[in-house]
Write a structure and sequence with these properties.
- Strand 22 and strand 23 form a beta hairpin.
- Helix 2 packs across helix 9.
- This protein has a seven-stranded mixed sheet, sandwiched between helices.
- The chain is 30% helix and 27% strand.
- It folds into two domains: 237 residues, Bira Bifunctional Protein, Domain 2 (BirA Bifunctional Protein, domain 2, 2-Layer Sandwich); 104 residues, Rossmann fold, CATH 3.40.50.800.
- The structure holds adenosine-5'-triphosphate.
Length: 442
């Protein structure tokens, strides 16, 4: 992970937020390459979940919502973690931190950070929602929250979307957006942060058909993670035990990815059968009927919801971890670092190198760059040895490198080097765009 964090910073994937001021706790900024990678992941999700289906519609709900939403959802009352503070070192811990032996607040308990005895406070509840005020007056009547999940924006718009698009149950609503949680134990780079992005889809089904749809969505979502190139043996399902299951949930599975090191297998996505809990709550709290009218059968009911909720940042981290490798190159002393990410996710699809800065090579390379740039993101580089230029691109995951050499200006051919196999193909420059497009699947 340390190597990945350093590469991510050095090459413009991910920077610490407000770094020049010492950083903001567990908040990260995506640099020029990171924003492309994350966008490619979001585009793949949006295509699979919205564009390629006629039974799911997209939505972009606001981050700020009516405060009653969070009472209905249970977040005001239930989105809390018991915490303890050390009066000596001022560190804060979750009350269930395994390093705390005994009951916090009693004299014999030792602080896991400073080692002092009897300095830990008793556990107290702490709400994970960020609070702010709407309008000029900072009083309790004007409190609003930054949403801790995007799902509620979907529930409150259930009938708006259904009626405006004339969808029939079963159908889904999907959205991608920011969520905020004042996490107590954030960390592991972008794995758990206080500001993050979620890609959520709520699928509304007739009660009684819910388990069938739950199984369907489990399968679809696992297929999607495989399609990103995540290794088979690094992905698995984890079924929530009775203790883990939320009180309203009828079934829940997490898709877990093996991040390696101390993290190991961790959740990247949750697939949940939420029953009619959410729509019932919003119906009660808003006093507005949210029932679906099934015209052919002349019946009204509250649909059950199958939710798929995946973290965009966590998936980005999984893609980076999955792709990172260090290897030796046959016939060379110096090894290389490769970000073996799926070509469809790579921020730069091809790099273009003139072998030398003379003999018309840069001009030809610039012409090729211009032609390719119209189709996908490319990078032009004429500085340093060709070996160095290859290394720079391997490290950021560019799948192809195109070299223009002495022969190119004579016979109009170029070489294309494959990041993973290191194989070089000599092909006609006017066939290049088609050749790369086919390999990239774009
Ligand atoms: P965890 O227990 O790991 O914090 P969770 O069970 O609270 O996660 P959900 O509420 O089910 O997570 O959210 C769905 C997805 O949103 C998670 O699978 C994860 O990918 C992402 N997610 C949740 N919290 C965070 C966070 N603080 N930082 C980054 N991603 C997050």
């Amino acid at each position: 992970m340390d190597k990945l964090v350093s590469l991510a910073k050095r090459r413009g994937y991910i920077f610490q937020s407000s770094e020049i001021y010492g950083g903001t706790g567990s908040v990260w900024d995506y640099g020029p390459l990171g924003v492309e990678l994350k966008k490619n992941i979001k585009d793949r999700w949006w295509n699979a979940m919205v564009r390629m289906r006629d039974d799911i519609k997209g939505l972009d709900a606001a981050i700020l919502m009516h405060p009653r939403v969070w009472e209905a959802s249970g977040h005001v009352a239930g989105f809390t973690d018991p915490l303890v503070d050390c009066k000596q070192c001022k560190k804060r811990f979750r009350a269930d931190d395994p390093r705390i032996k005994g009951t916090p607040g009693t004299p014999d308990v030792v602080c896991p950070a400073c080692g002092n005895r009897g300095t830990l406070s008793a556990a107290r509840l702490f709400n994970l929602m960020f609070k702010t005020f709407m309008g000029p007056v900072e009083d309790t009547a004007s409190v609003v929250y930054l949403r801790p999940e995007t799902a509620q924006g979907i529930y409150v718009n259930f009938l708006n979307v259904q009626q405006s698009t004339r969808q029939k149950v079963p159908f889904g609503i999907a959205q991608i957006g920011k969520a905020f949680r004042n996490e107590i134990t954030p960390g592991n780079f972008i794995f758990r942060t206080r500001e993050f992005e979620q890609m959520e889809m709520q699928f509304f089904v007739k009660p009684g058909t819910d388990m069938e749809w739950f199984e369907y969505w489990k399968g679809e979502r696992m297929k999607w993670h495989h399609s990103l190139g995540l290794a088979d043996d690094r992905l698995m399902f984890h079924q929530h035990t009775k203790e883990e299951l939320a009180h309203y949930a009828r079934a829940a599975f997490d898709v877990q990815f093996d991040f390696g090191g101390t993290l190991g297998f961790q959740e990247i996505e949750g697939v949940h059968n939420r029953g009619d809990f959410d729509l019932t709550q919003h119906q009660t709290f808003s006093s507005k009927k949210l029932e679906y009218f099934d015209q052919p059968n002349n019946e009204r009911y509250l649909p059950y919801v199958i939710e798929t909720s995946v973290g965009c940042d966590r998936t980005t981290l999984a893609v980076l971890v999955n792709g990172y490798r260090e290897e030796t190159v046959p016939g060379e002393d110096e090894g290389r670092v490769v970000l073996g990410i799926h070509p469809s996710l790579a921020p730069i699809k091809a790099a273009i190198f003139p072998l030398t800065k003379k003999d018309g090579q840069p001009e030809m390379a610039r012409r090729i760059e211009k032609e390719l740039r119209a189709k996908f993101p490319v990078d032009y580089d004429e500085t340093g040895s060709i070996g160095k230029r290859y290394r720079r691109q391997d490290e950021v995951g560019t799948p192809f490198a195109v070299t223009i050499d002495g022969d190119s200006t004579n016979d109009g051919t170029v070489t294309v080097r494959d990041r993973d196999t290191l194989k070089q193909d000599r092909i006609a420059a006017d066939r290049l765009a088609g050749f790369l497009a086919e390999k990239l699947g774009v």
